[in-house]
């Protein structure tokens, strides 16, 4: 996987939907899995900030990620998040990384 493109989306849930969000990721429909260039996804939550979710996706290149990120399937994947979900805008960010080594 060396040389892969990695996108990290971090967000913090600020209402009572944290457990529902985590469950939605556990039961995700897998729409991204068929996206061209997709390699894998990890979803993490820090022990000291359980309201935070870090969504880490691995791609063969940046173009593959951007194609997914701007696709109808990407928008469709958000449909599975709980209704009424509220996020802290100040703790929401998207970071792009180069995967150097395992």
UniProtKB/TrEMBL annotation:
The keyword Oxidoreductase applies. It comes from the Bacteria. GO terms for molecular function: monooxygenase activity. Keywords: Monooxygenase, Oxidoreductase. PROSITE patterns: ABM. Residues 5-94 form the ABM domain. The keyword Oxidoreductase applies. Pfam families: ABM. This is Heme-degrading monooxygenase HmoA.
